[in-house]
Design brief:
Layout lengths: L1 H33 L1 H4 L2 H19 L11 H35 L24 H38 L3 H55 L4 H29 L2 H18 L3 E6 L7 H21 L4 E9 L2 E8 L13 H10 L3 E5 L6 E8 L3
Parallel strand pairs: 1-2
Antiparallel strand pairs: 2-3, 3-5, 4-5
């Protein structure tokens, strides 16, 4: 019995959403007919189609789609189908819901109607001569139209939304073209990022480690020439060379760590993330599922992505805590980092999100950032991890 009650409770909001969707579609279809010359412009038509597909996504509770990129003829074909289906389905909704509402409003006021109009709207020709006739006919009519609204409107709304989504979804050729475009962009970004990384490593080695090694070599050379003549100078030079050697080793380890963190090789991704969370400037909760064997390149991207996300949360979001979830499903590794900060993350402001996106896209992954004003901020990443 409780199951049926829950289904009814779920169906009523669905009916309300479907009714609102169909009535809005009916109105926008009328607007489309009036503004048809404007909507025949491809850019305007695509913007109009994108808005309607987002409406359909909300009704179907699908992830929000991006802008429509279908060809002009495909969008115009959708526009014609949209107008027809909106008018038909919308009028059905108006007839069903309108009669139910009209009956509920007018039956109690039957006595105020002009004498010539006191005939049952459902049982045509039966005069309303008293409360008994009015309530009986009114109840029957209300129940019938309410049942029609309850039963027809939600599936009609979903059918209308699915038709729109299907017509506006890219074809196989469009998907392939977009895929090629994305891969071209990510390849260029990866090449640029790779070049920048090589230049950074070269600069770090040249300006840091190499400079220290040159200084060590010079001190050792002076010490060798002074050997037996100035023991105190030799001792000081050897001491300085030893100190510089330790500093050079430390810098060299830092450079290596930026290429591939040694902790990944020592402890695996789960262990590395545990250590990363313990060093975070703000409280971090880790939820790591079974990961299995993951390619080294994917491990490195996952590690640096989470490290950057935690750094962003500590530096920019005023967060007091973060939650990191890492799980593997088939050949995909999913990462979700959520902080309780103020939100409003903007990757154009140098918050590190652009760097995360470049790393992830370079290995054919996906990134989604949800950061409304007031928070929270959630960064969701999916990485291919098939060996």
């Amino acid at each position: 019995m409780q199951v049926n009650d829950h289904r009814a409770a779920d169906r009523l909001p669905a009916m309300a959403r479907g009714l609102g969707y169909l009535l809005a579609s009916l109105l926008t279809a009328a607007v489309a007919l009036l503004a048809l010359p404007v909507l025949l412009v491809p850019a305007t038509a695509r913007a109009w189609a994108s808005w309607h597909r987002r409406r359909a996504d909300r009704l179907l509770r699908r992830p929000r789609s991006g802008p429509v990129r279908a060809g002009a003829w495909r969008v115009l074909g959708w526009l014609g189908a949209y107008v027809v289906t909106s008018l038909v389905f919308g009028l059905v909704a108006v007839v069903c819901a309108g009669n139910a509402v009209a009956t509920a409003v007018t039956v109690p006021l039957w006595w105020a109607l002009p004498a010539g109009t006191r005939a049952g709207g459902f049982a045509a020709g039966v005069p309303l001569t008293g409360w008994g006739t009015a309530l009986t006919l009114g109840t029957v009519q209300f129940v019938i139209f309410a049942a029609l609204t309850y039963g027809l409107v939600p599936p009609l709304a979903r059918l209308h939304a699915r038709v729109g989504v299907a017509l506006l979804s890219p074809s196989a050729a469009d998907v392939l073209a977009q895929r090629v475009e994305t891969l071209t962009e990510t390849r260029a970004g990866a090449m640029n990022a790779h070049g920048a990384e090589l230049r950074r490593i070269e600069r770090d080695l040249h300006d840091g480690t190499q400079a220290r090694l040159v200084a060590i070599a010079m001190r050792l050379g002076v010490a060798r020439e002074s050997l037996g003549e100035d023991p105190e100078l030799v001792g000081r030079l050897l001491r300085e060379a030893h100190e510089n050697t330790e500093e050079a080793m430390t810098e060299l380890r830092e450079v290596i760590r930026t290429i591939y963190p040694p902790i990944l090789a020592d402890r695996g991704l789960a262990g590395a993330l545990t250590a990363l969370g313990s060093r975070s400037a703000i409280g971090t909760t880790l939820d790591i599922g079974g990961l299995g064997t993951i390619p080294a390149a994917v491990e490195a991207v996952a590690y640096f992505t989470i490290a950057e996300a935690l750094t962003n949360a500590a530096k920019h979001s005023r967060a007091t805590g973060t939650t990191v979830r890492v799980a593997r499903a088939g050949d995909r590794l999913s990462i979700e980092v959520t902080d309780d900060g103020i939100g409003g993350a903007d990757e154009t402001l140098g918050t590190g999100i652009a760097g995360i996106r470049h790393r992830v896209l370079a290995i054919d992954g996906t990134v989604r950032v949800h950061s409304p004003a007031g928070g929270p901020t959630t960064i969701t990443v999916s990485l291919p991890c098939a060996s």
